[in-house]
Amino acid sequence: MKILLNNREEEFKTDVLSIGKMIELKKFSFRMRIIKVNGVLIPREKYESTFIQDGDNVLMLYLMSGG
Amino acid sequence: MKFQEIKEHLAKFRVGIAGAGGLGSNCAVSLARCGVGTLVISDFDIIEPANLNRQYYFTSQVGMMKSTALKENIARINPDTTVIAHTERLNRLNIPEIFSGCDVIVEAFDSDEMKQMLIETVLTEMEGIPVVVGSGLAGWGNSEAIRFRKADETIYICGDESTSVDDEMPPMAPRVGIVANMQANTVVEILMRKTRDYFLL
Predict the structure, then answer these.
(1) What is the pLDDT of residues B144-195, one digit of tens each?
(2) Which domain holds residue A38?
(3) Smallest CA–CA separation between B166 and chain A, in Å?
(4) Distance between CA A67 and CA B24 in Å, rounded?
(5) CATH code, domain with A35
């Protein structure tokens, strides 16, 4: 499937992909993030039960500590 | 546009500042200098000597609540800016209440967990309210890595989005100040685009 990840096209070899699995495959390492799929916020506790599909628009941003 | 006109426009708005540490204190002072009408500043912490390497406080204020001290400092800089200081710890329940009526919210926390909590709460409970996030400001140098971007309709990000604070990469005045003022600059930009008929409120 092809998705848009932070406005960049990404291809995955599977048709079923949870947000949790995507984070693992992409080796996204920072622990705090904001994820939206097609404009809808996905809270942390739903990463494993939310699946992305071909054509989805995924926004992910990292929150770095410090202020 | 003349500064007088800019100031008069900004005076109509209310900005929420979540956290009054390095990002929040410097961002709030910058917004007060621009003439923003009301700042709602929330922080549960007291000022410690170690904070003075980057936060907008003075040695005589060590031991004071940050939000109370910041209110005092802003009154000395621009008494036309009204500061509403809150000292309770922010959580998912009180955020919509404390920041109700705010036109923009500045995320100015230290911890990544609190950053996430605030942004998620604003996105779900305060739909449509822009949130200006500070993310990535540790250490020194590397000015070119600090940037601004609009992630989507209501999320604006300032920072390098790659450095995290730790013992070897402390937060320091220059980079924290750059990001804090970038956040203030973003708030001004958002507010300058807004029109508001104040009497309809």
Answers:
(1) 999 999 999 999 999 999 999 999 999 999 999 999 999 999 999 999 999 8
(2) 2-62
(3) 9
(4) 8
(5) 3.10.20.30
